[in-house]
Amino acid sequence: MAGGIYLIQDDDRLVEMMEQPYDSEDQLQELLVTYPNLIAGDQIDRATARRWLLISREAAPSDEETAVQWSLDHLFLDQNAVPTLVDVRRTPNAELRQKVLGQSIDYAANALVYWPVDSIIALFEANCRDRGRDPEQIFEEFLGANANEDLFWQKVKTNLQAGKVRLVFVADEISAEMRRVVEFLNEQMDPVEVLALEIKQYVSEDGLKTLVPRVIGQTAEAQQKKSSATRERRRWDESSFFAEIKARRGADEAQMARAIYVWAKSQEPEVQIHWGTGDAYGGFAAQLPQRGRKPYQLFTVDIAGRMEISADNYGSQPPFNAEHNWLELRSKLSSIGLSLPIEPGERRSPSLALFTLQDESALKQVMETFDWVIEQIQTL
Predict the structure, then answer these.
(1) Strands of the chain, DSSP E
(2) Distance from CA of residue 373 to its chain's centroid?
(3) How far apart are CA 275 and CA 285, in angstroms?
(4) Pairwise CA distance, residues 325 & 307, whole Å
(5) What pLDDT is attached to residue 280?
(6) What span, in angstroms and rounded, lies between the C-alpha atoms of 146 and 192?
(7) Is the preceding omega at residue 191 within 30 degrees of 0, hence cis?
(8) 210 to each of 40, 52, 131, how far by Cα in Å?
(9) Backbone phi, then psi, for 15, in 5-degree steps?
(10) Can you tell me whether residue 363 is helix, strand or coil?
(11) Taking a C-beta distance cutoff of 8 angstroms, is the pair 84, 77 a contact?
């Protein structure tokens, strides 16, 4: 039996706790379900600790026609919607290590096929039902009451399409050979993050138990590569945006976005178009400059296929910070499907799905509404 650790009790009694192997892999797997924080999100990202949403334990491929017969031990998502694939083994030997590594790389390479986002949502809801929990309540506890659930799941899909996933190998002991392999993979695989997690168990004679997680694989070279990739944010432009939205959302929605863009360009120089940055999300914003005041951001259009406005931006500036003007604006925007809050200045971002504008009259009404908005602002 390996060495121990020492716990000082309130009565100044020193309790020796000795390292003890787990009774089974199942015990370690169940601990991760009950205590997801054991995945040591504060060690994985020291700037912003990763938090975990359990999607499923024993997640099998959703494609019934696949030839593979296996299931992933745990599928988690972090708060940035990065799928985290966890494989649990008790002190794997050389043969098992090769099998685990090969299988886990298979998971990462085929994650989009094995678990499309609709399947991930279904697994999450089924897991919640099995645990007697409400999925909406769990999601709210995970991301907060104001989180946009649809946007989160869309980001999961985007991460899967980009191959942005995290592999975590869990064991009560990570061998030197396993460590070298994990460090090598983490340095070479981008944007996939490959980590090992050693969770040692210490038990005292009177039954006290302590679990000590340690993340392995974050070499200085790997961290530099991943952080550099994060900093290199994509700058969108007309060409890249419309190619991307067509690929993601189809020709019809790309055409709707193009029509809105052409309308905004036709309003120049009063209206200025600003392109966003982001590796996965991006788009353009139509802004109306204001002398001596912050510009009015009329709306944004993004590659998730949405037109979005900021209620706070409108409600905090004249003329719409006046009650009667705000009510008139609410009425106008409501008629095109953008629902403003009752009170001006409330921090909300109503959005409109572009696919709802395929009718020519609906698209025309949107443009006429923003013609009216510009006219109201320019009368100041």
Answers:
(1) 4-8, 14-19, 53-59, 72-77, 83-88, 166-171, 193-203, 209-216, 272-275, 283-290, 293-302, 306-308, 351-353
(2) 34
(3) 6
(4) 22
(5) 54
(6) 29
(7) yes
(8) 14, 21, 25
(9) -110, 120
(10) helix
(11) yes
What is d(CA 178, CA 75) in angstroms, rounded to the nearest whole number?
Answer: 22
The two tokens of residue 109 are: 């390479």
Query: 1 near 20, Cβ under 8 Å?
Result: yes
What is the SS3 assignment for 362?
helix
In angstroms, the Cα distances linking 91 to 22, 55, 180 are: 10, 25, 15
Amino acid at 342: I
Q: Which amino acid is at 167?
A: L
Question: Residue 223: beta bridge partners?
Answer: none
- Give the type of residue at 94: A
| Amino acid of residue 293 | R
Phi/psi of residue 166, nearest 5 degrees? -125, 130
What separation, in Å, do the N-terminal and C-terminal C-alpha atoms of the chain show? 79
Residues of the chain with pLDDT under 70: 1-3, 60-71, 91-97, 100, 220-234, 278-281, 345-347
Q: Three-class SS of residue 70? A: coil
pTM: 0.59
**How many Å apart are CA 162 and CA 144, to the nearest integer?**
26
